[in-house]
Specification:
Elements lengths: L15 H8 L7 E2 L16 H13 L12 H12 L1 H6 L4 E6 L1 H16 L4 E6 L3 H8 L4 E6 L1 E2 L4 E2 L1 H9 L6 E5 L12 H14 L2 E6 L8 H4 L1 H8 L4 E6 L12 E6 L6 H15 L6 H10 L2 H31 L16 E3 L4 H11 L1 E2 L5 E3 L8 H11 L1
Parallel strand pairs: 1-12, 3-4, 3-7, 7-8, 8-9
Antiparallel strand pairs: 2-10, 5-6, 9-10, 11-13
Bound molecules: (2S)-2-hydroxybutanedioic acid.
């Protein structure tokens, strides 16, 4: 008998376990399109030049490794608020935004979940159908009830806007609605700024609270256009949670850097909100890691570096858009009859291919091509070196 005999085998993570399996696959031609990580044409996840420059400056100027405050660096908070809201709106929200520097976007989501469970009357968290696989685990961890709202039409593989609006109209007051700020994960089907106006209008009239998961700013259209979601909702005076990540747009995957912005509709609540957020931070990770935040702060506080970073984000975005066209054309040229042209319209790193779970498993087991069982692919993982093999593998499982 072991003390741990009571421990059962947990289900594997639907995304990260695939990278584990990929790593132990001996096939030299294996392809990983599962986890959302950008690679360049050579198949490398690069360290951005702006990040290298910021690290150089940090190395030269850092004087301590002492703890950050529980809420993180105040300079980081102010700069990330400006990035999300734009300068003008950020200024007008002063006194109404509580910002935490968090370990990645996941850390921001988890603290938000804790805060919501302990401090609000939300009965349920509403997730898009489908959504990022980890949302369910994060929001159920502190005991919150979950439900889903209609978003995607799996027949047309595109946004089902009427069904989405109808679902939003029926969400009870006080509940939390998790929205994807841009580059919807997993479908790549985004809302236009006009559609975000509809979302804000419905949130105001039905009095549910938006939580914007904002992990891909700059990967959709550009840094400012992609922020329409957060800006339209915050400008409408609504309470909102925004969970920001720098994993993708700064390539800081392993540095775990993000932010949680809680916007209140009444500045009188601000201090209480901050005090409760601090409780959640303290019991989870005490205070945030500093290095990634230092990089973000260095870049965003320097105009020239910020401009260079915008160009780096544009280059990553353009590569992904180019791959989408190349992939659709290659499938067609290989004689694949199914029309995949919808992939060109989707935004960000991910696309829902419409491939079934059985086809995803066959891709993995027969061809060493790793995609999520839902049929999601990370388009940013396709390169000139693997596209022909990928297309042949897909053709053979269809
Ligand atoms: C993804 O969806 O692949 C990324 O957000 C990485 C992750 O943590 O799942």
């Amino acid at each position: 008998m072991s003390y741990f005999d009571t421990v059962s085998l947990a289900p594997a993570d639907p995304i990260l376990s695939l990278t584990e399996a990929f790593k132990s696959d001996p096939n030299p031609d294996k392809i990983n399109l599962s986890v959302g990580v950008f690679v360049d044409q050579s198949g490398t996840t690069p360290i951005l030049d702006t990040v290298k420059e910021a690290e150089k400056r940090l190395l030269a100027t850092s004087k301590t490794k002492s703890y950050l405050p529980m809420t993180g660096s105040p300079a980081y908070a102010s700069l990330t608020q400006k990035l999300v809201f734009g300068d003008e709106l950020a200024a007008s929200l002063q006194g109404r935004v509580a910002t935490l520097q968090t370990p990645g976007g996941t850390g921001a989501l988890r603290v938000a979940a804790d805060f919501i469970a302990k401090n609000t009357s939300a009965q349920k968290i509403w997730l898009s159908n489908p959504t990022w696989a980890n949302h369910k685990g994060i929001f159920s961890a502190p005991g919150l009830g979950l439900d889903t709202y209609d978003y995607f039409d799996s027949d047309t593989l595109s946004l089902d806007y009427p069904a989405f609006l109808k679902a939003l109209e029926n969400i009870p007051a006080g509940d939390i609605v998790v929205l994807h700020g841009c580059c919807h994960n997993p479908t790549g089907a985004d809302l236009t700024p006009d559609q975000w106006e509809d979302v804000a209008r419905i949130a105001a009239s039905k009095q549910w609270i938006p939580l914007v998961d904002f992990a891909y700013q700059g990967f959709g259209t550009d840094i400012d256009t992609d922020a329409a979601s957060a800006r339209i909702i915050a400008a409408a005076g609504l309470p909102v949670f925004i969970c920001q990540s720098f994993s993708k747009n700064l390539g800081l995957y392993q540095d775990r850097v993000g932010a949680l912005h809680v916007v209140t509709d009444d500045a009188a609540n601000h201090a209480n909100i901050v005090s409760q957020l601090k409780i959640s931070v303290r019991v989870n990770y005490s205070n945030p890691p500093a290095h990634g935040g230092g990089i973000v702060t260095t870049i965003l506080s320097d105009e020239a570096l910020t401009e260079k970073w915008h160009a780096e984000v544009a280059a990553m975005r353009d590569r992904i858009a180019g791959v989408r066209t190349q992939f659709v054309d290659a499938l067609k040229a290989a004689g694949v009859e199914r029309d995949f042209s919808f992939l060109k319209e989707q935004k960000g790193m991910f696309s829902f291919t419409g491939l079934t779970k059985e086809q995803a498993i066959a891709l993995r087991e027969k061809h060493s091509v790793y995609i999520v069982d839902s049929g999601r692919i990370n388009v940013a993982g396709i390169t000139n070196a693997n596209i022909d093999r990928l297309v042949a593998a897909i053709k053979s499982v269809l």
